[in-house]
Amino acid sequence: MHIEILVEDRSGEKLLEILLPQILGSQGKPHTWRLHAYKGIGRIPRGLATKVNPAKRILLEQLPRLLRGYGKTPGIDAVVVVLDADKRDCAEFLRELKSVADACLPPIPNTLFRLAIEEMEAWYLGDRQALLTAYPRAKRGLLGGYVQDSTCDTWELLADAIYPGGSTAIKKAGWPLPGQVKYEWAEKIGPFMDWERNQSPSFGKLRDGLRRLVARSAQPFHRAE
What we know:
Layout: E1 2-7, H1 10-24, E2 32-37, H2 59-71, E3 78-84, H3 90-102, E4 110-116, H4 121-125, H5 128-134, H6 140-144, H7 154-162, H8 166-173, H9 177-189, H10 201-215
Parallel strand pairs: 1-2, 1-3, 3-4
């Protein structure tokens, strides 16, 4: 099976680059995949008509065009789209995403949509052992007050626990530091993470969805999940 995987930024790409072999095996043994990082999430365009320049690489703005293209491309068996839920209503957001896939002609490959709730940093917080191995001086009291997969300004909470000066220092410095710091978290925490140990429900849904996807690879089907 060959899978195209879309994520909204480089830090998400880096994390999945590290973790996917735990589920899919080594590249090409037997499955292959390709990761595509974008420069933000944006929004689904009205009428599913992409109007933003593709060079800007805003994921949701390009999603209808991308899915239609995958539907026309031989050799692509599945598409996985991984996004932050942020403050959105997750059930409604997933319905919108699935409607994009359902509207595509020709029919697209198997499509899996997965949300990190509230943000992908929740997945680091879901594996406290990996987090503390990477950052042994983390503020454990602050981490202990976190409710898993809650809407609580997740990346800021993680930054306050492990970054000198916390989220305030990162925001004061401005771009590109936030992106650089998040990429560093993926590099440092990702290698210690375990798919089975993680306590994040949204991380578990990604894990289980990928497992179902490859388990069914011998039985072609079309469904957005």
